[in-house]
Specification:
It is a single-pass membrane protein. This is Cytochrome c oxidase subunit 9, mitochondrial. It comes from Podospora australis. It is found in: Mitochondrion inner membrane. Helix content is 82%, strand content 0%. It is an all-alpha fold. It has a domain at 36-67. The N and C termini lie far apart (93 Å).
């Protein structure tokens, strides 16, 4: 037993926790970055374009009705 403990191999304590924290940090950072890129780069412009289309359509309908 003592021969194994005194060998040149370092114990690996703490490696799992450090790796887990690093992996979670990277995953959350990338998820937030790409989520924001989708939301503000694709979703919001499409939503605004749709809303503007229906607003214009409603204004045209109201103009035809004479209101």
């Amino acid at each position: 037993m003592a021969a194994i403990a005194s060998s040149g191999v370092k114990p690996i304590t703490g490696m799992l926790r450090r790796g887990l924290i690093l992996d979670l940090s990277i995953a959350l950072g990338l998820g937030f970055t790409f989520g924001s890129a989708f939301w503000y780069g694709y979703h919001m412009p499409r939503t605004n374009a749709r809303d503007n289309f229906y607003k214009k359509l409603e204004e045209q309908r109201a103009a035809k009705a004479g209101n």
